[in-house]
Amino acid sequence: MAVCIAVIAKENYPLYIRSVPVQNELKFHYTVHTSLDVVEEKISAVGKAMADQRELYLGLLYPTEDYKVYGYVTNSKVKFVIVADSSNTSLRDNEIRSMFRKLHNSFTDVMCNPFYNPGDTIQSKAFDSMVSAMMVQAS
Amino acid sequence: MENKPIVTCAGDQSLFTSLYTSLAQQLPKEPMEWRRSYGRAPKMIHLEANFVQFKEELLPKDGNRALLTFPFLHIYWTDCCDTEMYKVSVKDGMLRWQSTLRLHGSVDWLIVVVESEAKKKNKTNILPRTSIVDKIRNDFCNKQSDRCVVLSDPLKESSRSQDSWNSFLTKLRTLLLMSFTKNLGRFEDDMRTLREKRTEPGWSFCDYFMVQEELAFVFEMLQQFEDALVQYDELDALFTQYVLNFGAGDGANWLGSFCATVKRWSGLLLRRPIDMEKRELIQRGEASLLDLRSYLFSRQCTLLIFLQRPWEVTQRALELLHNCVQELRLLEVSVVQGALDCWVFLSCLEVLHRIEGCCDRAQLEANCSHTVGLWTYATEKLKSLGYLCGLVAEKGPTSEDLNRTVDLLAGLGEERPETVNSLQSPYKKLNEALSSVEAFEKHYLELSHAAMEMYRAIGRMRSSRLIGKSLAEFYMKKGDPERAEGFLDDSLRSYVAEGWSLQVTHTRKQMAECQKLLQQTEDYLQTSALLAGDANLTEEERKHFYQVILTFASQAPTVALSMAAFAQLRQMQFSPPGAVVHVGAALQLELRVRCLMPVAVQVEQLAATLHFSLEQGGARGRAGGTQRRTGQGPQGQGDGVVLFPQGSPLAGAGMGASLPPALELYEMQDRSPSDSSLNSTGVVCKNMHLLLRRHDSSASLDTPTAGALPAAVAVDDGAQMLRARDITLQPGDNSILFTAPTGEPGSYTLRQLCGSVGRVQFVQSHIYPVVQYEVYSQEPQLTIEPLSDNLLAGIPQKVKFTIATGHYSVKKGDALQLSNTDSMPILHSSCCSATILSSTGELVGERALSVQSSEKVTSISLPPTPPYHTLEFQLEVLCHIPPTPFKPDIERLTNGEVRHRPKNHSQADSGMIHIDQKVSIDCPWSIYSTLISLTFYVPFKAKHSILSAGKRKYIQVCLQNVSDTNFHLADPVLTELTDRAHTSSLTRSLTHLFGSSFPQTVCSQQSVFCLWEMRWVKHLPLCLQCAFSASFAPVSASDAHTAFKPYRYEFQLDRVSTLYSLKAEILPSSGDQHCRTGALCGLEVSITRQAEPSETEGEEEESTEIEGLRTTKLMYEVVDNSSNWAVCGKSSGVVSMPVAASATHRVQMEVMPLFAGHLPFPDIKVFKYLPHSAVPAIQPDTDSCLENDTMSLLDKGLDDQGDTASIRSRGSIHSVGSGEQQRGLPMPRLEPFSPGQVFYWSQGRQVLVLPVTDDHVMEVNVT
After folding, report:
1. For the whole model, what pTM was predicted?
2. A134/A128 Cα distance (integer angstroms)
3. Which of B322, B344, B694 should be substituted to probe chain A, the one whose Cβ sees the most A Cβ atoms within 10 Å?
C-alpha cells in the first residue's frame, strides 16, 4: 500500500498528487519532485532506439530511510510515482507493478474523457477513488 | 594471513623439505576442473595448499567441523629404494600413519615414492626399483593402486623428471579435489540439517552463522569468492527474514540478544578482511544487531572488492544502512537518540573511504551516481546530528546538548587501530564535527557541497537543489541570509518553472524570511504579495503577509510590484461592444479583475496607460473601422469582450510558460472591394507562432520566470489614461468601470495597468491579448438615393436624402441649396419631415422640414442635428420625358457621370432609355457644390410605322411599357406639326381608327398599338412631322385625374405618297387551266406610276429627259426566298418609266413552280436605278446591293429539272449594264424606295399549282 501517489505531466508539473498522512504532504511533494531526477536518468539510459519496446515500469527509483519510491513512465512521458513506506516489507515488486498498471488504466480513462483537457490537473472522482483504494488507510 | 587448504606430510621430512619449494610453485600452475554436487556448474580452479608436518592433533576429532583447519590430504613421503630398509623401518612408519588416519576416518591419503638415479647408482646390487613400489602398493593400497605415486628424479631437469612431476601433480590435484568434494559435501549436508532445525527451540542463529561462515571461508580459501558471497547472502537473507517474522509477531528466542539496547555505534569496519572482534562477539552470542550487520557487511564488502565490484558495495551499503535503521525500529531496540545517526554517518564515510581506497580518482568520478547516495545520506545524518547537538543554533549548544554529545561520542568507543594514524578517518571527522560549532559547519558544508557537486555532475539538478535548499535552511538558522538567498532563489525558480505549487509556497515563505532579514524591501514586498495571494497558505498567514504590504504602503518610498501577485485580469468588455466610436463619444470599458488578496483592498487608483497612434482606422471613418474590428476582435468575440488566458490555478503564475496557449481563432472574410460580395471566408489562427514553437521540456528548468521577481517593473507615465479612483477590491472577482477618452481620432491600445495601494503600486506591464479601441472622425456626407429600384421619368418619384453629419453639427438655419433645372423640378409638399438617427442607428427625433423654392434654387432648411447623427428625409422629384426620340445613353448634362450601372440586367436588355439627371447641391459644411446624379428611366418605348393600301395611308404607333410598373394610358392623340409655313395650306385629317377603349391599362412589357388613317386634300407633303401624345398614370396612383402625366412622341415621315404600284399575275401555260409543277408559267409584272412627282420629289428622283419625255429608271427583281419557284430566264431587269401618272410598264417572265399546292407569289422588288454619275457617297450601298443580288442568285440554286439552257445565269448588273449605253463608269447603283412609296398589289397572293398527274413515283419511306 502506498503512502503517496503522484501523476506528473510530461513537462514535469504535477497532474495529481495525493499522500496519506496529510501533515507530511510537503515532504512527499519534495520526495516525488526529486525522484524525477532518477526517472529522467532511467528514461534517458534506455536509449532512443529502445524507447518503443521499453518497459514502462522503472522499478525502485531510490530508497530513503523511510520510504521507497517507485516509478513508471507511460509512452507519452507521463510519470507515475508511488511512494511506499519502507517498513511495509510485505510489499512485493509484483504488487507495485499491478498498482502501476491499475493507475495507468485509470489514467487512460481520465484521458478518454472528452471533457478533460489534457494538461489540466486530474479531478476525476473515479481516479481519486481508485487511488484511495491503493493508499494506506489513514488510521 | 592467507588461508590455504591444509595438506599434511608424513614420512621423510628432509625429502619433503627438499621438494617443498617446487611443489608449492607447481601446484597452482595449472587449473583443474572441479565438478560439483547439486548441479552446480563445474569450475576451473587453481589449487594451492599449505603443507604441514603430519601430527595426530591435526586430525579433526568427532564433532569438530572446523573446515579451515581440516587437513584435506595426507601425504607420506619416502625415497626408500632398499627392500631391507623398507621392511625394517619405512613399512612400520607407514603402518602407523595409516592406522592413525583410519582411526580418524580419513581416507584421503597418498604415498609418494621418490626415486633418484643417484641413489640407484650407489646401490647397484639392489632389486629392481619397482619392487618397492609394488610392495607398497601391495601392502597398503589393496584396491586403490593410484594412492601410490612415483616421483622420479624430482630435482633434475630432465623430461622424465618433468613427466613424473606432471603426473604426480595431476594426481595430487585430483585427490585434493576429490577430498574437497567429499568433505565439503558432507559439511554442507550437516549444515543443511542444522538449518532445518531452526524452528527448534534451542537453535541459535549465531551457531549456525559460524557453521555457514566456515563454508564461506573455505570457498574464500579456494578463491571462490562468488560462492563465499553466496554463503553470506544466504545468512543475510535468513537473518532479515527472522527480523521480518519477528516484526510480524513470530519471534525466535535467539533474537532476544539482538534486541538488546545498542551500546556501541562505532560504524562499519571495512579495513580488515575479518573483524575478529565482532566475530567473537557473534560466536559468543553477544553481538548486537548492529554488530552482526556490520560484520556481515564487512565480509560481503571484502568479497565484493575481491570480485572487483566496488559499486555494488556502495549500493548494498545504502540498502544496509536503511535496512538497519528499519530493523532496529522494527525490533523496537532502544537506541540513544542520535546514535544511529552516528552509526550511519560513520558507516557511510567508512564505505566511501574503502571504495576510495580501491579505485582511482577517475573511476570514482565516473561513478558518482553510485556514491552520491552515501554522500547525501551522510550529509543528512550529520545535519540531524548538528541540530540534535545544538550545533546549528545561533547561540551554540546548551549544556543539555553538550551532555548528549558526550553520550554519543562515548558510544563510538576507541578509534580503531587501523585508522589511528589517518588524518581523515570517519571517526576523527565525527569527533571533530561534534566538538565545536565551527568544525561542524566546516564538515557539514564540505559534505553538502560535495554531494551537490556530484548531483550536478550527473545531472540530478533537483536533488542538488534540494540539498541546496537544506543548506539555505542551515544558513538561515545560522543567521546568514546572504548565503541562503542564492540557494533559495535557485530552488524557487526551478519549482516555479516546473509548477510544484506546494514547494513554491514553502520556499517562498523561506525566501520572504530571508529577504526580510536582508532588508530587500521591494523583493520582500513582492514575495509577500505573492504569498498573500497564495491559496496554499492558511487565511491567517495570507493576512499576515497582506498586512506586511499594508504596513509598507503607508511608509517610505514608492514601490512598484508586479500585478500578477496581486490580481489577475479576467476580461475586459467595451460598451458599445464594437469598440469603435466617433470623436467625443462615450466609451466605457468594464474590467474584470480577480483579486487574490485575502481581504478587501482599498485601491486609491487603478489606471491603465493608453498608447495612442494615428492609425489608418482612425482617419478612414466608420466603415473602415468596423471592418477591421470584425476581422481582429480578440478571441473572436463580436461583443467587445476580451478574455485573458488563465494559467491553471494549481500551477501558479509560472505555469503559463509550460502550458500550451489556447488557440486564438478568428473568422476571416474577404470581400471584393467593388460590390462587397463574399470572395472567400476562412478561419485564421492568430497565435500560431506560439503554438508551433518547439517546446523544450528540459530547458524549462532553467528559464527564468516570474518565480522570484519579474524584471524591474517600471511605471510608465503615458499621457492618456484610463482611471478609476478609490475602488475596493473584494477577494475574488471584481468589476471596474472605466470611461475611455475619445478626444482625438486614432487607435488607443491599453499598455500598462497600475493599481496603487498607498505607496505600493501593482503594475502589469503588458496586457495580452491586445486591447484596443478606435476613435474616428468623419466628414459630413450627403447621399441621395431613390426609394424604389429605379426612378421613372415622367411621374413624380420619391428620393431619400441622407445626411451623415460626421463631425459637423447642423445648426439652426443651415440649409441645403438645390439648384433647379427645368427638366427636373422638385415637388415639395407641405408636410415634409426629417428623422434624426444617432450613430448607433437609434431614432432620436423627428423634425419638420421646410422647403422653399425660388426661381433658381430650392432651399431645404435643415433641423439642428448634433454631430455623428444621421438626418433623413424624402422629397418628390419629377423628371420630364424629353419629347424627341433620342438614342439611349444620352446625357442631358455633359459633364456628368453615369451614377451606377443598372443592377438588373434584364432591364438593361429591355432597352429602357435612361436619363442621368444631375443635381447640384450646396451644403452648409462645404464651400463646394455637391453634384449628385440621379438616373431616371423612361417607362415607354414608342415606334411608328406607315402602312399603305393603294393610295390610302395609315400611321401606326406602337407604345410599349418597358418599365415594371403598370400604367393607365389615356387620350392618345396624333397631331401634325405645322411648323413649316409652306405646308400649312395642306389639309389633312388623321383619323384615329380604334379610339374607343381608352383609357386602357398597359401592364409591364405590354404594348398598345394605335392606328390612324391619313387623308389629305391636295398633295401629300414630302415630309410629314407628327407628334403622338398620350397621358399616363401609374395604376397604383390614387387620384387618377391629377396623376395623369403627358407622354409625347415626335416623329417625321418622309416620302409618304405611293409612287408605283406593282401588280403580278401568274398565268398557267397555254391550254392549261392551272399551273402544274415543273411546267413553266408566265409571270407578268405590271408597274404603274401612281402619281405625278411633286416638285420636291422631282429633285430627288433621278429622271432623264428622252425625247421630251421624262423617264426614271427602275430595276425590278424577282426573288423567291422560299424555293417555291424557279425563275427561268432573266429574273431582273431595268425599265424606264415615264414620269406620268398611270404610266404602266409590263414585264413578262417565266417561272416554274417546284411544288404543288397554293404557292405564294414570288417576291418582286423594285429599286431606283441610278446611273453611275450619282453621288459617290452612296456607292457602298450599291456595292452591297450588288453583292446581295449576286448572292441571291447564287442562293437560289438552279433546279436540275429546269431548262438550264434557257436560264440566263448571272443576270448581273454587268449584263444589264451592257444592254444600256456604256458611259465609261461601270457601276450604276440601286436605291430602295422608302416604305409606302411602292404598293405591292399582289403581296400575299397565292396561286394554285397542281401536281403532275403521272410519271411520278412517290417514294414513301416508312421508318
Report:
1. 0.64
2. 10
3. B322
